[in-house]
Here is the input.
Amino acid sequence: MSYAPDSTVDLDRFTASLEASARIGPGRPGGLSRLTLSDADREMRDLFVGWCRDAGLAVTVDTCGNIFARREGTDPDEPPVLVGSHLDTQINGGRFDGIAGVLAGLEVVRTLNDLGHTTRRPLEIVNWTNEEGARFSPPMVASGCFIGAYEVDWVHGLTDDDGLRFGDELARIGYLGDTPCAPRPIDAYFELHIEQGPILDAEGCEMGVVIGGYPSHGMRVRFDGRTAHTGPTPMDQRQNALAAGARWLTMADDIGWAYAAQDGKASAARLVAWPNKAGILSDHAEAVCDVRHPDTSTARVMAERLRRAAFEAAARCGCRCTVEDTWHWGGDIFDAGLVASIRQHAERMGVTHRDIQSQAGHDAYFLARHCPTAMIFTPCRDGITHNNEEFCTPDSFRAGTNVLLHAVVERADRA
Amino acid sequence: MSYAPDSTVDLDRFTASLEASARIGPGRPGGLSRLTLSDADREMRDLFVGWCRDAGLAVTVDTCGNIFARREGTDPDEPPVLVGSHLDTQINGGRFDGIAGVLAGLEVVRTLNDLGHTTRRPLEIVNWTNEEGARFSPPMVASGCFIGAYEVDWVHGLTDDDGLRFGDELARIGYLGDTPCAPRPIDAYFELHIEQGPILDAEGCEMGVVIGGYPSHGMRVRFDGRTAHTGPTPMDQRQNALAAGARWLTMADDIGWAYAAQDGKASAARLVAWPNKAGILSDHAEAVCDVRHPDTSTARVMAERLRRAAFEAAARCGCRCTVEDTWHWGGDIFDAGLVASIRQHAERMGVTHRDIQSQAGHDAYFLARHCPTAMIFTPCRDGITHNNEEFCTPDSFRAGTNVLLHAVVERADRA
Here is the structure.
């Protein structure tokens, strides 16, 4: 048996790996709560590294904890083809988000091992640290650092809600590697991911060819006021930072509704105030909101409305406003050649497919700034994600994983 | 030297006691952060109990941790006259709020000791547990339990943000007493307190005769939604509990402004959501708001607007709304006889004074349901409170503490 256009991955083996992952870091029933750099994250990483070594791969860990498992090519001097995603989850996360992409990369390698096929270029499977940003904000810092968008020291200095540092937690779980997390030549990056939206499931479509990402803008804003008693302090003397934060979140929600018919969205995602107690007005608050729209220009307008809303909310409440961080991603960022290759393999294999935009952020967005990049989406039930009810059948991965196999081999073997 | 109409308290001794208290549980510069049932609370209680014993008082602690320090009367069968307030503070609290009232009670007793005067009725100084509600919500639970408004088991079961139980923390600091916290005959209750508002300071008035409390209504509301990804989930499919909470707080703030010209207020005091993270819509949120207005009927209307606003906010965000707790206090609740006595002593002593309504909640509100009750207010700079900048000069307590002395003795000695 050798590699051929009709070769297929072992879907049972892939499913068994997913199921093993689903037992590490259980959350609400059926879901996972495997926050990055937690004990559960370590356990999953250990399992993954063991699988990679069993598959004959050379594992390295970089200074952001990104794990690279390398299968040598016949031409080891060529830059590798990278395939992966992330093994961390949201606090009320599902069993598939990210995980399916890492394990699909592993399954591609296992399949090529079975077939005895060595690609011309090396293959590397990657697990990116902290894709979710659920514990350390912002998300995707480790892939961002890998392509040079962030400094390692800055990533290490991020703190969670308990004040624990990213760098310390990385060392604690034993995944502070010594390979510098810095840009290096990559031939191409592939990421398979569940859609995290309802389109493929609703249309009964087996696979999405991701042509780009929804233009998305987010920001973290701090409001500074002054503590005072909730009783005697007249309204016109209050500087309630919690009220300012609440106003901003409300205005964000309003912005989302204003663009909802064109599939625009705005999210009131996070609000933390201090002291945040009955009986006292809050001194300061920090909030995170984001906006998304399929049209780049509209997304930009929404982002500016959101930014101005923060200052308006602060002014209404007599507080000061500081935009502490902003981020944006999306647009038609994926490589036309890789996208065409994925589409052609789907056609050839008789897989039902459609072009689709990603609405969530992915490590692939950073990688696309560094090397040719593409994504494959697989269906998930009702589009539910970041929730323990996230659900995919084993069969829902059949089309995506097999197209991934052939697209990766085509890329890695090209002259 | 014996007790006479011109007897005075020792203001230096009172000030020294306040200063000793100001060293226990330091917060921001000049302030205190002495949360109830903390180690600092224990240290302050120990100091207070030592002072009481030095003054010859018999100390008992009840099952809610309330401390009663009794000075026997010539007629020990008569119910006692109770004088006190609270020694706990807000997380960003001041050095005077509550503390001045407990130590003024102690100073009255110390003065009577110096003068060798035994009142007919017993005197008891009281420190109420958890007046502030800053750690365990709602506030004033221990005075509420003392007058029969709450059950001890319910109080013991309250939890702080770390999940620690009130009853366990009481035992931990050694102040779970064995005297049942339950109603018993009290002849009268006096509470001296800083005004926590700007009126006395602005008018240069030495003392406030508190005639009642601003009618105040508060409520704690829970919003239930559903976690989902902030990206793909369309606006019309979101059930973001954090957005619902933020909308309610914003509507509360609007209600406050609508009545601000008549000195009405509404406070967006607390909002806690879960997971409350970038990248995910929140599953549930809990929020606390309150409204206050000098007119009872208007306050009731504001409270109903606030309640309906919670359901409106939930409906806008596709969430469920549960009003988990409500409370109200205020009105003309203080005893006309005691109020007149306080006013007359002020007149007699040539102290500038004015009638005033309390805008904050006090343990005296609960006691007023149980026995004749009155309060004395002393000025505080700019009315700033629940803030480390809370400030009172030693001299600002001269009028209030001396009027307290004479009003207490008159009440305790009456035939």
The CA atoms of residues 61 and 67 of chain A lie 5 Å apart.
